[in-house]
Design goal:
single chain; 108 residues; alpha+beta; three-stranded antiparallel sheet
C-alpha cells in the first residue's frame, strides 16, 4: 500500500492456501511445518523482517519499513525472489500437512 502524507506505507505479499488452515499466528505456523527445509524457509521470511501469519486461508507476509526508508524503493529480484520461493515452500508445506491431517481424521 502506498504511504499517505502522514502515514507509513507497507507491503503485503500473500499466497492462497488450497487446503491449509484458515488462521495461524507465527508460532502456530512454525508447529505446522513438517520438515527442516520448511522451517528454514520460514526463517528466511523472518530474517527479512517480514511478519508472517495465515489469515482467512492466505499465507501473508507483511513488510513495514523501519526508520527512514524510501518506500517501496526499486524492485530487486535478487532481494525478493528468495522471499517468494520461501513463501511457496511454506504454503506447500501447510497444504501438505492439511492433506495428511484430513487423511488421518478420515481414517479414524
Amino acid at each position: 500500500m502506498r504511504r499517505g502524507r502522514h502515514s507509513q506505507g507497507y507491503l503485503v505479499i500473500a499466497m492462497r492456501l488450497t487446503g491449509g488452515p484458515a488462521s495461524l499466528d507465527y508460532t502456530s505456523l512454525d508447529t505446522q511445518l513438517r520438515g527442516e527445509e520448511d522451517r528454514r524457509a520460514l526463517a528466511t521470511l523472518a530474517n527479512r523482517d517480514l511478519l508472517i501469519d495465515v489469515e482467512d486461508g492466505w499465507l501473508k507476509a507483511l513488510w513495514r519499513p523501519q526508520g527512514f526508508v524510501m518506500f517501496p524503493g526499486t524492485f530487486s529480484s535478487d532481494r525478493w525472489r528468495p522471499v517468494l520461493d520461501a513463501m511457496r515452500r511454506v504454503s506447500q508445506s501447510l497444504d501438505e500437512a492439511s492433506v495428511v491431517n484430513r487423511g488421518t481424521v478420515a481414517d479414524s
